[in-house]
């Protein structure tokens, strides 16, 4: 008997409905039927950039901020030519969109207290998650942080959709001076949270994971590794994650994530934006003999 064919991820032409400036970021809303119906909190979309005749072959991937009523919202920081092209778009401009992609946030089977931690515009997917958790009867606290006030995202919305909110900025321009990890222990203890969800820079996610573990909570984090294709082909976004069997493997964030249990990520492998392969990872090069032959952990010699 032939296996059932796997459902294809939709690829649609999205029409830009609105482009709003929010602090240092742009909030874009696209009409994207076919994408919305399948989307879940924590998933992402991949947007083509530059137009039909562009030499920019690689898409740009963004977490879904919100998906409802036939529209998909994303939040973009204009950092390079691709993201600047997107943020310069006007209403009725069209963009090719693939999505939803990746694995979203796992949801608790029973109502529990949760803390949602966002760094910069990494907080975008947490608002949809917060609404979903509260619909399930969960108590939801949020912690939002950024370097400066202008780089925060969603503070006003967090006050509406969460049961409690803490804000931090590195320079003290809003909320508590310092990092999200400085206030997170008190929030977990006060709320008796069992799950901490996070999205933001990798260094922040590592701190969130460590704080959660120290206070008896499980961290579920959406990583921000660079993704070039978004569909698992290019291997740009690989990182070391330990599986249920205790073996570390280099997995693709775009298809195996972007959400992982924080305590399964090999954080020590990350250094100043680079990710190395741990020597004990499956398939890692462990030694080289005099003839130049290499031995791979778990592989043929």
Query: Could you give me the name of the CATH homologous superfamily of the largest domain?
Result: Nucleotide-binding domain of ferredoxin-NADP reductase (FNR) module
> How would you characterize the largest beta sheet?
7 strands, antiparallel
* Assembly annotation: single chain
Q: How many helices?
A: 6
Strand content: 25-35%
Description of the molecule:
By secondary structure, the chain is α/β, with parallel strands linked by helices. It is built from six helices and 20 strands. The protein has helices spanning 81-87, 124-135, 155-161, 180-191, 202-214, 253-256; strands spanning 11-22, 25-31, 44-47, 60-63, 66-68, 71-76, 94-101, 113-119, 139-146, 164-169, 176-177, 195-199, 218-222, 238-242, 248-252, 259-261, 270-271, 274-275, 285-288, 294-296. The protein has a seven-stranded antiparallel sheet. A seven-stranded mixed sheet has the order 11-10-9-8-12-13-16, sandwiched between helices. It is globular.
Provide a brief overview of the structure.
The protein has 301 residues and is of the alpha/beta class.
List key phrases describing it.
single chain; 301 residues; alpha/beta; Elongation Factor Tu (Ef-tu), domain 3; Rossmann fold; 2 domains; seven-stranded antiparallel sheet; seven-stranded mixed sheet; globular; disordered N terminus; disordered C terminus
């Amino acid at each position: 008997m032939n296996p059932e064919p796997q459902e294809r991820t939709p690829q649609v032409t999205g029409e830009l409905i609105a482009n709003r400036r929010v602090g240092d970021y742009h909030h874009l809303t696209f009409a994207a039927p076919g994408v919305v119906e399948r989307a879940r909190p924590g998933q992402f979309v991949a947007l083509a950039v530059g137009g039909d005749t562009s030499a920019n072959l690689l898409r740009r991937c963004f977490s879904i901020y919100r998906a409802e009523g036939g529209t998909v919202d994303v939040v973009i920081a204009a950092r390079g030519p691709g993201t600047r092209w997107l943020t310069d778009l006007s209403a009725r401009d069209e963009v090719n969109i693939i999505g939803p992609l990746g694995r979203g946030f796992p949801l608790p089977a029973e109502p529990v207290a949760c803390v949602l931690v966002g760094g910069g515009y990494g907080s975008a997917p947490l608002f949809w998650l917060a609404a979903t958790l509260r619909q399930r009867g969960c108590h939801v606290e949020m912690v939002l942080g950024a370097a400066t006030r202008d780089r925060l995202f969603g503070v006003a919305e967090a006050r509406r959709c969460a049961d409690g909110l803490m804000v931090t900025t590195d320079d003290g321009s809003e909320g508590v001076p310092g990092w999200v990890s400085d206030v997170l222990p008190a929030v977990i203890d006060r709320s008796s949270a069992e799950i901490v969800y996070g999205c933001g820079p990798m260094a922040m996610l590592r701190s969130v994971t460590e704080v959660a573990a120290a206070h008896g909570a499980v961290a579920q984090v959406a990583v921000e590794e660079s993704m070039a294709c978004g569909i698992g082909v290019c291997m740009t976004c690989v990182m070391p994650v330990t599986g249920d069997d205790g073996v570390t493997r280099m997995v693709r964030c775009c298809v195996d994530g972007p959400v992982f249990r924080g305590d399964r990520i090999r954080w020590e492998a990350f250094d100043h934006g680079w990710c190395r392969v741990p020597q004990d990872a499956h398939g890692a090069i462990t030694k080289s003999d005099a003839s130049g032959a290499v031995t791979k952990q778990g592989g043929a010699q």
